[in-house]
Design a protein that fits this description.
The complex is a heterotetramer, with 2 copies of chain A (about 400 residues) and 2 copies of chain B (about 260 residues). Chain A is an alpha/beta fold and about 400 residues long. Chain A has 16 helices and 14 strands. Helix content of chain A is about 45%, strand content about 15%. Chain B has about 260 residues and is an alpha/beta fold. The chains are: A alpha/beta (about 400), B alpha/beta (about 260). Chains in contact: A-B, A-C, C-D. At the A-C interface, strand 3, helix 5, helix 7, helix 14 and helix 16 of A face strand 3, helix 5, helix 7, helix 14 and helix 16 of C. The structure holds pyridoxal-5'-phosphate (2 copies).
Chain lengths: ~400, ~260, ~400, ~260
């Protein structure tokens, strides 16, 4: 157990962030979930089943790949933790497998989830299919149109996709709608949230389910002769892949870097606030109204950040930087051409920061662990349009 | 005892409380709807201060909040208007925590108190995170009205009952605000509140028709009607038409009183 | 080393099939390749590097997943070898990693490849990028239009895609064109063929590079307590994933089943003939002209089959069956909904046969190893059109 | 010694061999092009029997083969026409192995022999897989004409030289059939053939102009011209126009003879 990234306090606070800001109707479910998760996570049988499912179904452990050609280009040593090779194409599966198993353990028969681009929705539908749980996914109407293929993917997996027509009709509103729906069905339904966000115990639980990334990576780096990397770099939307990889290095001397999208930089541009059940850093206007994030990458299009990240930023233990859309496409191209790995646009943010910082903020010959959170197949059509000047 | 506690305990001895809900800033003349409803017999006015992400609200109030935000409604602008209107019945503001959090808890409490607001309902503030707000609000004599839900176990209801000021908002069903076809679990929820405390219990969430209101009033000490009224205003009802609607609710509640 | 699936004779024959039917201009390259492969495959350093690259870059070992809900539905026990989790989404990476490493070992600096749907092309471009080799992919013009996103994917990876305008302008012609081009650049260029086809040593070499599938699976099944499965089932286009998995079980009592597309069933409908450098079973008309295959799945759209499969069919050691397009979509849906795995359309052929044969040709309670050769992401748009009656 | 061996060794004593290539069945009157070329001085005729997948052919001959297949040309139909035409110069058929394999090796050899075909070039049949075909063909006195490529090492050239009948097809470059701007590696390849055997060496692959042909003829014992002629026919040249083109090549070769 990490000292820096330990459990939150009993109320789910990481420093001044986190907590449980939900309607009374949902509080019993949050408390039940907290107890159920504590119980399960302390039960060797549950932990074993979680790891077994990730191993036999989810494709874990994902490898660490030394990126030799990129390293040579940048004058640093870059190792990539390959979450792109996990089932459904990103780290999202780690979390949904954990939550789906917990759902069954709690005797619930159904999951609901929010999704933006559809990655978490596909992952949830996948875990639900595997465990025989019913599944409904809330998705902003705008996103159902932009990501029509992911809607179909979820439907293929047996899930029902509900277009959300409220608010800005994107991810933020999908979360609202999922919470609203959860109120009505909390007795038999678990809300499978997609990142280290939401009311306690979600940020903690999701981080725990994702910490398999960092724990694996730390061991794997040792096989490459790397005891502690100088930097651990991950992109940050809600922050689950970053939290997962940071968890393996929080007590080490590694510098932890979270890379946000410039247009969704909750740490860089946000202020403390309360949304979606948590106190964290949020993009908001002068009156505390939540502002929409904008990013080329749907998975980073979130106006907040997980509360533990807000806390790590406060502590100075992790640093959060931002990169603009313009450099992200180039980073995606560079990684594809040098290493034969087309990263997700989200992931390409972390790569873009490496390209910018190598030899500068990252001193020459540093050792860097890059969390390669997902594959770019989902983004190829969009990247093509952009490169052709079509959008 | 807050002022709201005192007033509503007194009200309980006289009649069932009718609590219509209005969205601050929904129309330019929104306070005239409030005045009309007071004329028609409203006992307490619930005023929604809009938030971009109203997690506890259904489609009608969401649409209303969005419209109000489009009209540049803010906590300050609404308080300003309430202050100017200076209604004689108690005003209870309903808003989400971020609105208060962003403006500052103490600053919010002071502003609300100065504007004549007697209480605040913050639907995303359950008892676990309540203390900082309740403390500053109580200091300003602004009551914290808390909700009990059908899912709340007895032990929670007891604690909520202890902490809720003015009245307890008894949610009739597991749902967000909206219109429904019955009074749901009102009876069970109010029963739990009554067993836990002596604070008046008002029934809300989904109360749509006068008949529901009457039924709810036979159960609780008051009735909160939200979406059903907001929908009328969104549909373009005049203040006079709204006054008619409120009168109907008033009669239903008075009928419930006489039955009791 | 398997006795049944041992090396071919010195001329590359598996029984009466295989051989080297290429222009004299290419014979020296085929001989050089044969010698280079024999040398490399006998060199522990090369073998170690091949396995290391597949482990650290390619995502091996891929897991074996017990398909519990499908098993229950069918009354048999189905285990899936998860090649869908390999890098680039199918077993194709196993082969291209081997050939790319061999290319470098031979001192060549460039690879060319043919591709149909684009899977092998993407895999080749991937391995080439990783190793810093130049890469040109030949693709029928018709396919470049149908699979435009895969063309872009290859380009992102730094490859040049050449549309082939000869013949039927599909896969078969892409092979012809790659062979024609190879004649002109054989000195510095390796032809990285995509299946167990072509002149010796390709069918053997590709099978050896793919046999990692069967070897891994046999060990993994033992961890599930399965010593020998009753059936080993794989889809067959050229036959590389089937050959790879069969190689682990050829000397066991397992029944080996190759599932062809009904419209490309070289074993069912073909006759012995010579094409693309090999003697095998081919779809051909009364005059020995090669006929086009037709299948819903581009990866099975090949009028031939690898020569070793023709030989295994001759021996009766493996059995080849065919399923029609109509049942393939349904099979894809069933696997998606029951197990949370959207298979490639190619792979769905093998699933479709399971659905048909369980309880009949596959006796109740049999144990089946299904080679889940690839993921369906590439096919989702097509499946959607089909289900909506758009195509 | 096959008949073709005898005839071409005899031819070598007289002049450089001019070998135009025609696609059987390309047009309905394709044999009239053959006759015209013989009139103009062709010494050997290479007749392509089209195959769906001509791996050793460039775009021109691919297009021609596709057209001939569209005209329902088959091994049998072409043999039938050759038989009927009964040309006095040796006919060498060029086809891919599957065509023979499918018809049956013995049956093919007999059919070809009966149709007056003296030899066969099978570009996808290198010496490794040659024996079955060469044995039955030789038995029918149908020669197997083999290719040597610039990539063939000396030891292979020696073995090819031993096995090739009639002539050795010396590929001037590492390429499939087509049109090129020079005679490529002809000199080196022919040199290797000469060092290996006494069989006449004819230069082909990419010979486009009379000037190339002349140069190639100073190197080898004959010249094969394919795509350059097929292109003319595809472009709609008449038999008479083709005769003119062949005459030009003839003069170029005779010039080379006189220079030698
Ligand atoms: C590949 C990938 N990386 C990162 C993210 C961002 O999420 P998080 O910050 O929770 O890891 C997403 C979200 O969809 C994603 O798909
Ligand atoms: C997923 C998948 N399976 C199977 C095949 C067929 O090839 P093979 O028979 O060589 O395994 C392909 C070819 O593209 C493929 O992509």
């Amino acid at each position: 157990m990490s000292a820096v990234m330990g459990p939150p306090d009993a109320g789910g606070h990481f420093g001044t962030f986190g907590g449980r800001f939900v309607p009374e109707a949902l509080m019993p479910a949050c408390l039940e979930l907290d107890a159920a998760f504590r119980d399960a996570w302390g039960d060797p049988d549950f932990v074993a089943e979680y790891h077994r499912t990730l191993r036999e179904f989810g494709g874990r452990p994902t490898p660490v790949t030394y990126l030799g050609r990129l390293s040579e280009r940048l004058g640093i040593s870059v190792y990539a933790k390959r979450e792109d090779l996990a089932h459904t194409g990103s780290h999202k599966i780690n979390n949904v497998v954990g939550q789906a198993l917990l759902t069954r353990r709690m005797g619930k028969t159904r999951v609901i989830a929010e999704t933006g681009a559809g990655q978490h929705g596909v992952a949830t539908a996948t875990a639900a299919a595997r465990l025989g749980l019913a599944c409904t996914v809330y998705m902003g109407e705008v996103d159902t149109v932009r990501q029509a293929l992911n809607v179909f993917r979820m439907e293929l997996l047996g899930a029902t996709v509900v277009p959300v027509t409220s608010g800005s009709r994107t991810l933020k509103d999908a979360v609202n709608e999922a919470l609203r729906e959860w109120v009505t069905c909390v007795a038999d339904t678990h809300y499978c949230i997609g990142s280290v966000m939401g009311p306690h115990p979600f940020p903690w639980m999701v981080r725990e389910f994702q910490s398999v990334i960092g724990v694996e990576a730390a061991n794997q780096l040792r096989e490459f002769g790397v005891t502690t990397p100088d930097f651990v770099v991950a992109c940050v939307g809600g922050g689950s892949n970053a939290a997962g990889v940071f968890a393996g290095f929080a007590d080490s001397s590694a510098q932890l870097i979270g890379v946000e999208a410039a247009g969704g930089s909750a740490v860089g541009l946000g202020m403390p606030g309360v949304l979606h059940g948590m106190r964290s850093l949020l993009l908001q206007d002068d009156h505390g109204q939540i502002e929409e994030a904008y990013s080329i990458s749907a998975g980073l299009d979130y106006p907040g950040i997980g509360p533990e990240h807000a806390h790590l930023a406060d502590l100075g233990r992790a640093r959060y930087v931002a990169v603009g859309d313009d450099v992200v496409i180039e980073a995606l191209q560079v990684l594809s051409q040098l290493e034969g790995i087309i990263p997700a646009l989200e992931t390409a943010h972390a790569v873009a920061w490496l390209l910018r910082a190598a030899g500068d903020e990252i001193p020459a010959r540093s050792t860097v662990l890059l969390n390669l959170s997902g594959r770019g197949d989902k983004d190829v059509a969009q990247v093509r349009s952009i490169l052709r000047g079509e959008s | 005892m807050t002022s709201l506690d005192t007033r509503l305990r007194d009200l309980r001895t006289r009649r069932k409380a009718l609590v219509p809900y209005f969205i601050g800033g929904l129309t330019e003349d929104w306070t005239t709807y409030v005045s009309a409803s007071i004329l028609a017999g409203a006992d307490v006015i619930e005023v929604g201060v809009p938030f971009s992400d109203p997690m506890m609200d259904g489609p009608v109030i969401q649409a209303g909040a969005l419209r109000a935000l489009g009209n540049a409604a803010t906590l300050e602008s609404i308080c300003h208007e309430l202050s100017a209107a200076s209604f004689e019945v108690p005003i209870v503001v309903m808003t989400y925590y971020n609105v208060l959090h962003h403006f500052g808890l103490e600053r919010s409490a002071e502003l609300l108190a100065q504007s004549g607001v007697a209480g605040v309902i913050v639907p995303d503030l359950a008892i676990e995170e309540l203390t900082p707000w309740r403390d500053v609000a109580t200091a300003a004599d602004v009551s914290s009205v808390l909700m009990v839900a059908p899912s709340s176990p007895d032990e929670r209801v007891r604690r909520i009952g202890e902490l809720s000021q003015g009245f307890v908002y008894a949610a009739a069903r597991m749902a967000v605000t909206g219109q429904a076809a019955d009074v749901g679990d009102a009876s069970r929820v109010v029963g739990a509140v009554r067993a836990a405390c002596d604070t008046p219990a008002y029934v809300g969430i989904g109360i749509t028709t006068a008949e529901h209101a009457r039924e709810a009033a036979t159960i609780g000490d008051g009735v909160i009607v939200g979406s059903a009224l907001v929908q009328r205003i969104l549909d373009g009802a005049s203040a006079q038409e709204l006054e008619g609607a409120i009168s109907t609710f008033r009669r239903a509640l008075d009928q419930a009183s006489s039955e009791a």
